[in-house]
């Protein structure tokens, strides 16, 4: 048994419900890996979980330890675990990430290659796996496709834009400031639209010669989803994979009829539930980094003890790139 600092919340609410506690961590059970984390991912999904909003989170009794991804060093392995060994650098996807030392089922853990540091993996793994299924499985991006990426300067947007560009797509990104426009242009976007100053629908149609894009990748939700449908070409797909501005509300399906449009509200969980798919997705992401198609970065680094400030910054869209919590 070892003591570990952790972050819990006992009720849903604003960032001030997050509180620091020390918990007892037992030795890893059969099929588990004990990881001493060096980087913990900070994602908008953590905000949804803390607020108690809609999402793919399973009902969990309070207190809740938020977060779902991290990286670090294997401290010990439980009986039956042969794929990992103490001292090995690993990353994982599994609920309950906001603590320093934790036990994780081995089938949710992936070994890190030499070219992916623990801090990069902790900040970017969930985003990288999300980009993999969005670009390679949910819709297969092909050379010549035009795609629209909302929040292109965010942690997800940077990976999506770079990878889509490497796949041969023309990438149009939306951002909220001139500074973020520069970031997006440096990370795969061919065209950038400042949605605070420009009509993103008109500009998207202008960039595509009036044809529209093959797919819209929307992590913003309520504020942009319906206008985004006007950006699609016939038989185009609008993917709402996040709701930073609020949930997309009910709308008239007849809006889709004239151009035979499709919409989708996926979650990463469905695409990596199978351990084989998890490892294949991670390998594709790691290979994209190795081959120079995706350059990873870290935005703001927050001590785990400053998690309330980290959540406030993420909610107010004050972060750029992939922020991370450092235990």
From TrEMBL:
<dbReference type="InterPro" id="IPR047618">
    <property type="entry name" value="QOR-like"/>
</dbReference>
<dbReference type="GO" id="GO:0005829">
    <property type="term" value="C:cytosol"/>
</dbReference>
<protein>
    <submittedName>
        <fullName>NADPH2:quinone reductase</fullName>
        <ecNumber>1.6.5.5</ecNumber>
    </submittedName>
</protein>
<dbReference type="GO" id="GO:0003960">
    <property type="term" value="F:quinone reductase (NADPH) activity"/>
</dbReference>
<dbReference type="GO" id="GO:0070402">
    <property type="term" value="F:NADPH binding"/>
</dbReference>
<dbReference type="InterPro" id="IPR020843">
    <property type="entry name" value="ER"/>
</dbReference>
<dbReference type="InterPro" id="IPR013149">
    <property type="entry name" value="ADH-like_C"/>
</dbReference>
<dbReference type="InterPro" id="IPR011032">
    <property type="entry name" value="GroES-like_sf"/>
</dbReference>
<dbReference type="GO" id="GO:0035925">
    <property type="term" value="F:mRNA 3'-UTR AU-rich region binding"/>
</dbReference>
<dbReference type="Pfam" id="PF08240">
    <property type="entry name" value="ADH_N"/>
</dbReference>
<feature type="domain" description="Enoyl reductase (ER)">
    <location>
        <begin position="13"/>
        <end position="325"/>
    </location>
</feature>
<keyword id="KW-0560">Oxidoreductase</keyword>
<dbReference type="Pfam" id="PF00107">
    <property type="entry name" value="ADH_zinc_N"/>
</dbReference>
<dbReference type="InterPro" id="IPR036291">
    <property type="entry name" value="NAD(P)-bd_dom_sf"/>
</dbReference>
<keyword id="KW-0521">NADP</keyword>
<dbReference type="InterPro" id="IPR013154">
    <property type="entry name" value="ADH-like_N"/>
</dbReference>
